[in-house]
Write a structure and sequence with these properties.
Distance between the termini: 109 Å
Number of helices: 2
Strand content: 35-45%
Shape: rod-shaped
Order of helices and strands: EEHHEEEEEEEEEEEEEEEE
Radius of gyration: 38 Å
Strand order of the largest sheet: 7-9-11-16-17-13-14
CATH architecture of one domain: Sandwich
Helix content: under 10%
């Protein structure tokens, strides 16, 4: 389009030929780098700038995403994960790598962190079992409710690790006794049971209860301070 002989397109070109030949070069900023892609600098469509991105950059991204025959390879090309056990998590704005946690820890939500999740030791949930027989071999990290008109004898686990728990709660009128295996001892305040099979704790009331914590693997158990009633120590 010409207005009174003025062509706004050809007259804004740096012509390398003679006037009116429709040939020439668009002038960009002096800082432009060869091979970079030019973009508009504003919304007028009149000024261009160096984008800082090359055609090779775009081709690399396209190649990374274009492995349709092997989606796993395509994902690996752009994935931030680097190490066995890594997880991909989302922050408020980005997908990031969450490194694998220590052995035996579990993934836990935590809204105070940018990732929203973290690795942490598992919470101990004690399942409780009702015991209606007169004998019970106890398992680690388990609670027992004794319910018999006769005495219920519950024997400590033979194998336990530091930090394991057992819990016993009376319900039946017969009461309960915590028996020991060879080499085991129970520490109850300033009292200790006789080491080995001769030592035990006994309830004196129907609803007596106690929690024990393993303090030496396999052998020593200590009352955590959670107890009810008058516990007899032998």
């Amino acid at each position: 389009m010409s207005i009174y002989g003025y062509n706004p397109f050809t007259n804004n070109l740096d012509k390398s030929g003679t006037g009116g030949s429709s040939t020439g070069n668009v002038i960009g900023p002096n800082s432009s780098i060869q091979g970079d892609i030019a973009t508009y600098a504003d919304n007028t469509g009149k000024v261009i700038q160096d984008s800082g991105t090359t055609i090779a950059d775009l081709l690399e991204v396209a190649n990374n995403l274009s492995d349709v025959a092997d989606p796993s390879t395509a994902f690996d090309n752009i994935s931030p994960l680097t190490t066995q056990g890594d997880l991909l998590v989302r922050t408020a704005s980005n997908n990031i790598r969450l490194p694998a946690g220590p052995d035996n820890q579990v993934l836990t939500t935590d809204s105070s962190l940018p990732e929203g999740v973290k690795w942490a030791p598992p919470a101990i949930i004690i399942p409780f079992l009702e015991v209606t027989n007169t004998t019970q071999t106890m398992a680690i990290n388990t609670g027992y409710v004794t319910n018999n008109t006769a005495l219920v004898t519950a024997t400590l686990p033979t194998v336990s690790d530091f930090g394991d728990l057992v819990w016993i709660i009376g319900h039946g009128s017969g009461g309960w006794q915590i028996a020991q295996n060879a080499g085991q001892t129970i520490h109850f305040g300033n009292q200790d049971t006789t080491t080995g099979t001769g030592g035990h704790l006994d309830s004196s009331n129907q609803y007596d209860a106690i929690q024990l914590l393993c303090t030496v693997a396999n052998t020593d158990w200590t009352c955590t301070g959670i107890s009810q009633g008058n516990i007899d120590v032998t």
